[in-house]
């Protein structure tokens, strides 16, 4: 013990986990006062990180206030029944983990720990959270699952930086609209296994929400405003009382996993057939049929339908492989459903687009089969968005060079062969460039320097475009990178230097392995690895668990992780991997 304490006075970190301690040694509280005669007191540092997890500790002393430099305190998996008021006298405390104890009440003094960013009080016996928690305005990650909490304090409206909230397994009967209105930064929200009967009408405020889990409640409807949750990737509504779905759910363009099992749904809306889902669980509902339009949901890997009184489908189709069912549904689509509609001429569309661009500062000439852009459309030099996708353009118009305010340039699905470096270099404010699905030849080795400020780049479907060692790090602001269908056999190493990268899509390539270097991408929230040849994932990928909320793995010969774990979604997979990391 003396050796550990001595080392802690040098490093500022002390780990006393798994030592069967009944009490915290007094020397821990004494910090620098316990410097030995054989130590140089001027080299000693204050304790900043204290890990006391997995012991038998029954109480913490008020002497905790003697550790004012503490930033991390972990006393999880002990036998605490309360916390000392001195917890509020730790002004530097950023991470507090008191999970898996028997704590009955969190002291109001916690509100004075105003630096707190992460607080985990799950698996205790709490009936409420203190209202003073609202004073912890830096709080971004709050876990209070598996308690007996009946309501959340309204003061949490002040915690506008919350990105993750887990209140699973409590006694919550409602969620306040005031709270939802203030939590606009939420990316992960788990309120499953509660007593909720409704979802707040303003849930659409959560436009950054990626994972939303409300399974096992008493919810009878989903509000139409759900369409505002435009970042949603995983939505779990199983074991509720839903009798219908809002048509607006079909507007959730990023949704990949939708769990609706064990409800009372009588039909699946045609509008929801526009979703690009990988997994759809409709088992144990009251469906008697399926819309033929569901056959167009070709991204579906898994469609679960057991436990429904389906009368229009053979049981062998219902329990058989998903692609066969989708093919059957497609065959039932009426051939004449595309009624003839009179469309304006191409010239009319171009003229109208040019006129609109003056006021809207957005020019859209999408899907007009243009081989060149007419010079008359450049009426506004202040345009900030240009969409020229789905045309037959081979070279960019020189007029683009004068659009110095341009922020978004969409060139998808054209016939561009050469990297338009000269024009791109003349666009100093360009933030988003989409060049996917062009016959692009190899980009020059210094090509990315022309777009050094870009935050979104899509090169998908340009298999020959990447140089041998692409210098992705010259785009240091890059937040979204799409490299689908690039015939990649390995991930370009320079990608791992992109510290701001949030979305990386490498699906439909020929990747056989996943590098441990992925753990360096600490800002990553979405990682697409679908349709590769990956059979094993490195355990270190689990270290991305706090930030990574959407990991797409379907279409890989995955052997190292059981299908039951894969089907439970991203969080389950990452936790499984994290548990495999050698201690």
Helix content: 10-25%
Which secondary-structure class do the elements indicate?
little secondary structure
How far apart the termini lie comes to: 20 Å
What does the main sheet amount to? Answer: 13 strands, parallel
Backbone shape: globular
Contiguous runs where pLDDT drops below 50 for at least 5 residues: 335-343
Question: Which oligomerization state do the chains in this entry correspond to?
Answer: single chain
Gyration radius, rounded: 28 Å
What's the β-strand tally? Answer: 22
Number of helices, where a helix is a run of at least 4 consecutive DSSP H or I residues: 9
Proportion of β residues? 5-15%
Lateral strand order in the biggest sheet: 1-2-3-4-5-6-7-8-9-10-11-12-13
Q: If you average the pLDDT, what whole number results?
A: 90
Architecture overview:
- One of its GO terms (cellular component) is cytoplasm.
- It comes from Quercus rubra (Northern red oak).
- Keywords: Leucine-rich repeat, Repeat.
- This is Plant intracellular Ras-group-related LRR protein 6.
- It contains 9 helices and 22 strands.
- It is largely without helices or strands and 583 residues long.
- It has a 13-stranded parallel beta sheet with strand order 1-2-3-4-5-6-7-8-9-10-11-12-13.
- Strand 1, helix 2 and strand 2 form a beta-alpha-beta unit.
